[in-house]
Amino acid sequence: MTLGLATTDRYRVRYDEVSPLRQALDIEPVLAMVPSSARDLLDVGCGTGDLLERAAARLRGLKRLVGIDLSDERVAIARTKLAAKPVRSEFHAADLRVGTPPVGTFDCILMTSVLHWLHPVEAEVFRAIGRHAKPKGVFILSTYHPLITDSGLGGTDDVVHAALLHLGWSRDEAAAFFDRPDALPISKRTRSKREIKDALSPNFEIDCVVDRNAAMCVNSADQYLKYHSATFGGYYSGRLDVDTREAFFDALGEEAMTRMAERGHVTEMPVRIWRTVNAQDKRIDVV
Ligand SMILES: C[S@@+](CC[C@H](N)C(=O)[O-])C[C@H]1O[C@@H](n2cnc3c(N)ncnc32)[C@H](O)[C@@H]1O
Predict the structure, then answer these.
(1) Which end of the chain, N or C, is surrounded by fewer C-beta atoms within 10 Å?
(2) What is the third-level CATH fold of 9-280?
């Protein structure tokens, strides 16, 4: 299974070659919130396993690591990365929207940079994740909250919107590109903080949150296009004619470098890290 990587091969790279530009910046703040008593760790949407690899190096009490991801390719990379570590690890390719494999229960569950891909079934996924939390188990997740600009979009959607205008699309055509039920702007796929809190609440109690701003910066158009391809696959470019994709990528690269020159970053992305605790043991089921 893949995220539908219908993208130009020119920029196809491994996810972990470009995640240091953005997603991997969340690893340390997330690991700092993992209880030092944790013995087992589950990472849902584990990508190529960098978070678990760093956890294995940093949290010496860990005995078992488990990763789940939609992509067979990323699961295979993660499995290879962790194979040499002195802690037991296992990886499963599975779609969290459908359910979780029977991996047991954990002291700590992590989910970084994944929630926007789980729209609109986040609450169901949280329920499934809740079944893998031990009593007093902790669930830590990171969510993105792009600022909405004049285009009515934010984050990468806004960069894509500008690239479509560079291609000569009208504003109405560019708006229509995002106005499809099967292709929501990523900013709309990310629920508000209030909605996330409500979706978590049947299973998890919020323990603490850390908010920070994570600007995404690149040193060349090529670097941005590699990041974009590995992160978004064909989510945007797959909606374009094959003949238009190369020009679209050129326009995206140009827009990214214009933003670097004018603003010092390509996107500005407020990130929230939530640490939550299994709430099940506090509830009494009344029938
Ligand atoms: C932006 S990457 C984040 C990877 C890793 N957690 C990190 O922080 O670097 C999003 C990951 O979520 C995975 N993903 C997306 N939809 C998924 C789904 N429905 N079920 C399982 N994994 C999914 C993707 O394959 C991808 O590896």
Answers:
(1) C
(2) Rossmann fold (3.40.50)
